[in-house]
């Protein structure tokens, strides 16, 4: 067996210690995240700001030769500022800060002769837009909190389903050049798990009719899987395995929330285009 084949086999194999480590880490992250989402602002705002700052460090680590520097500090400070503006309902200002962060971070990276200045600057949009999308969705009248909880749980169910089904059934690779560990069986299993959780949780929360819930869960599961592949593609392009090592068994914060990033952004964009109120859809 070649070295690449051995690595792929090791990645596909069941490793009980790895599963245990992933489970403990997931619980440790889920507890404060769930508390923040249930409690809402200001706790949610602070939590989102912390996550944005951590992801800024990770993004620069992935794209910027592992050195945070002025460019990374500029991005983190501006994104935290955007989250703070959103906390006061100033979403136009908040998105404006994110838009301004891109050229400012680019200029800082260029001034300090950093490699990959444009990819570094692009992180402001990749991190900032989903962070603001979460807060904007949460602020939707009557159903905001339930909607955010529902989307996050659907994506988490997709991740869990894909992991366990993919490791059990294996089979053809989904995108071997981007993420060799992902399989078609895992993708289908993830979508099925997302639809089951989305339907059950949506009915429990009284969000929408069963057909709407199932269709929405299917759509957001697929979107989240594309988000996962995108983040994997970025890491592969810069020859980095994990965004960081702060979440044992998962890698970094970016590795954990890549699907959530995509789903929240898509949901906010769709609802904004429809007039900002999701209730007529439900």
* Shape call: globular
The secondary structure category is: mainly alpha
The ordered string of helix (H) and strand (E) elements is HHHHHHHEEHHH
Give the CA-CA distance, first to last residue: 53 Å
Instruction: Please describe the biggest sheet, giving its number of strands, its sense, and whether it closes into a barrel.
Output: 2 strands, antiparallel
**Integer count of domains:** 2
Strand order of the largest sheet: 1-2
Number of helices: 10
Low-confidence stretches: 1-14
Roughly how much helix do the residues carry, as a percent range?
Answer: over 70%
Mean pLDDT: 89
Beta-strand fraction estimate: under 5%
Q: What's the quaternary structure here? A: single chain
> Measured on Cα atoms, how large is the radius of gyration?
19 Å
Compute the number of strand runs: 2
Describe the protein:
It is a single chain. The chain is mainly alpha-helical and 282 residues long. It folds into two domains: 39-139, no CATH class; 143-282, no CATH class. 76% of the residues lie in helices and 3% in strands. It has ten helices and two strands; from the N terminus they run αααααααββααα. The protein has helices at 3-12, 16-39, 43-63, 69-87, 91-111, 117-138, 144-169, 184-205, 210-237, 253-273; strands at 173-175, 179-183. It has a two-stranded antiparallel sheet. The longest helix is centred in the C-terminal third of the chain and has 28 residues, at 210-237. It is globular and about 55 Å long. Mean pLDDT is 89; it is low at 1-14.
Provide a concise account of the structure shown.
76% of the residues lie in helices and 3% in strands.
């Amino acid at each position: 067996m070649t070295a690449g084949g051995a690595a792929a086999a090791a990645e596909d194999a069941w490793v009980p210690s790895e599963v245990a480590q992933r489970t403990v880490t997931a619980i440790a992250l889920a507890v404060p995240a769930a508390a923040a989402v249930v409690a809402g602002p200001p706790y949610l705002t602070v939590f989102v700001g912390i996550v944005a700052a951590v992801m800024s460090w990770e993004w620069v680590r992935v794209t910027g030769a592992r050195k945070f520097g002025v460019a990374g500090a500029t991005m983190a400070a501006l994104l935290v500022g955007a989250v703070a503006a959103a906390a006061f309902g100033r979403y136009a200002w908040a998105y404006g800060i994110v838009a301004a962060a891109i050229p400012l971070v680019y200029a800082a990276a260029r001034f300090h002769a950093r490699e990959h200045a444009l990819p570094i600057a692009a992180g402001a949009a990749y991190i900032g837009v989903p962070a603001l999308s979460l807060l904007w969705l949460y602020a939707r009248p009557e159903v905001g909190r339930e909607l955010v909880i529902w989307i996050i749980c659907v994506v988490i169910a997709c991740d869990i389903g894909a992991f366990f089904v993919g490791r059990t059934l294996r089979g053809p690779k989904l995108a071997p050049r981007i993420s060799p560990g992902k399989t078609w069986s895992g993708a289908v299993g993830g979508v099925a798990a997302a639809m089951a959780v989305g339907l059950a949780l949506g009915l429990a929360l009284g969000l929408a009719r069963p057909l709407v819930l199932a269709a929405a869960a299917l759509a957001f599961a697929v979107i989240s899987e594309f988000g996962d592949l995108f983040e994997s593609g970025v890491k592969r392009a810069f020859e980095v395995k994990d965004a960081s090592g702060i979440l044992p068994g998962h890698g970094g914060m970016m590795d954990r929330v890549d699907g959530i990033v995509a789903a929240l952004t898509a949901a906010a964009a769709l609802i904004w285009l429809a007039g900002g109120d999701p209730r007529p859809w439900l």
